Amino acid sequence: GNSVTQMEGPVTLSEEAFLTINCTYTATGYPSLFWYVQYPGEGLQLLLKATKADDKGSNKGFEATYRKETTSFHLEKGSVQVSDSAVYFCALNTPGGATNKLIFGTGTLLAVQP
Amino acid sequence: EAGVTQFPSHSVIEKGQTVTLRCDPISGHDNLYWYRRVMGKEIKFLLHFVKESKQDESGMPNNRFLAERTGGTYSTLKVQPAELEDSGVYFCASSQGTTSYNEQFFGPGTRLTVL
Description:
The complex is a heterodimer of chains A (114) and B (115).
Chain A: E1 3-6, E2 11-14, E3 19-21, E4 23-26, E5 33-38, E6 44-50, E7 56-59, E8 62-65, E9 75-77, E10 86-93, E11 102-104, E12 108-113
Chain B: E1 5-7, E2 10-13, E3 19-24, E4 31-37, E5 43-50, E6 53-56, E7 65-68, E8 75-79, E9 88-95, E10 105-106, E11 110-114
Parallel strand pairs in B: 2-11
Antiparallel strand pairs in B: 1-3, 3-8, 4-5, 4-9, 5-6, 7-8, 9-10, 9-11
């Protein structure tokens, strides 16, 4: 079945460090891929998405490239800030259905220290 | 424009009791989803409404869970009777359509603790 695997956390970085959060997926068909972020006390927000192979999603300095050959969608940011501290979820949709339900990974807690 | 709202934000109940969670989607969004995150694990899909109809309820864990969306506006998710393993964060999301281009907007979640 469809699934998402993302790296375990927590990830602790100093401000201005480079961030990578790994995400790989298993899916039939051609899913779209997403990164959601949950800041403390808030709901999930869509951070970025990519709908086909080789697409790059980007937002707020974060980037992720849809790699079909490696079934990956790793999240990167060149210089993290304290305000980036949050839980990050990788997700995919289920193509071809009428539901468009999302399948999530377990989430990765990022803590950025000043 | 108001986002997706959920009530209550927290609920603590005893095993065997009943709890009802409420979700108000963004106005005009026909699609409403319920998801759950248990014990820091992945967020799992529970069910999907299109207006007042259940489009997909394949993720509902058992018949102790009942979701409704009368009138196609807000939705409720009732757990009766609650068990310890039902503890977790319940998220609601809404969207205008069901393609990958239709973003699902999430509420802040309801944290349910069953003692």
